[in-house]
Write a structure and sequence with these properties.
The chain is an alpha+beta fold. 32% of the residues lie in helices and 32% in strands. The strands form three sheets. It has a five-stranded antiparallel beta sheet. It has a three-stranded antiparallel beta sheet with strand order 8-9-10, with no helix packed on it.
Length: 209
């Protein structure tokens, strides 16, 4: 069960407990018209229903943002490259693990992070193909889009030596095995899409054999 659904049930449980205590305080008020017991019941209800409600509202903020992105964002297909801790949500004292997604944007490798509501990472294996939508630099995972489909050029998406941030300068080189043209960041490597060989570039811009 994902954390938002758990918090929903937890919230409704506390609302029910608060309502029961409020009803008992009204029915068992010692003196008709004496507000003491009723005020206690109201305070108890507000605390039991309000505090979990505030927590639930805060936890559902990413879901509300994701809905906007899914409704209006640009669709991309990519790969689950890894996981990233989300310290804002703890489960049994441990942070949730968001998904690191790599995808092609007009031939350029990009990397983004999407929220993960489930504590079961087996549903999101590294290397799985997913569909995401992006709007204003924020990404959301399309529900039910996790598959084992193969993508053209996925070797480069999953290449741990490749820097998708674009902060490193790149150099155009030729693959030493097949001669095809490649653009590789300094100090990184790339899988040649034509022959499948790994081509590495030194920090000085020399091809490493």
């Amino acid at each position: 069960m994902d954390m938002r659904r758990f918090m929903k049930y937890f919230h409704w449980l506390f609302i029910a407990i608060g309502a029961i205590v409020l009803a008992m305080s009204v029915l068992t008020a010692p003196v008709p018209g004496n507000p003491g017991g009723i005020l206690f019941g109201l305070l108890f209800f507000v605390m039991f229903a309000g505090i979990p409600g505030i927590i639930r509202y805060a936890m559902e903020a990413p879901a509300r943002q994701d809905k906007v992105i899914l409704d209006s964002g640009v669709s991309h297909t990519g790969k689950i490259f890894g996981y990233q801790e989300d310290a804002s949500i703890l489960v049994n004292g441990r942070p949730m693990q968001d998904l690191v997604i790599r995808y092609f944007d007009h031939g350029v490798i990009r990397e983004t992070v999407v929220n993960n509501d489930s504590t079961d990472l087996t549903k999101f294996p590294i290397g799985a193909t997913v569909t995401i939508r992006i709007m204003n630099g924020k990404a959301a995972l399309v529900p039910g889009s996790v598959t084992d489909a193969r993508l053209q050029g996925e070797e480069n998406l999953m290449n741990p030596d490749f820097d998708p941030t674009g902060r490193r300068p790149s150099k155009g080189v030729h693959c030493p095995n097949c001669g095809s043209s490649l653009i590789i960041p300094y100090g990184m490597s790339q899988i040649c899409p034509y022959c499948g060989s790994k081509v590495s570039l030194s920090e000085k811009g020399d091809i490493i054999h």
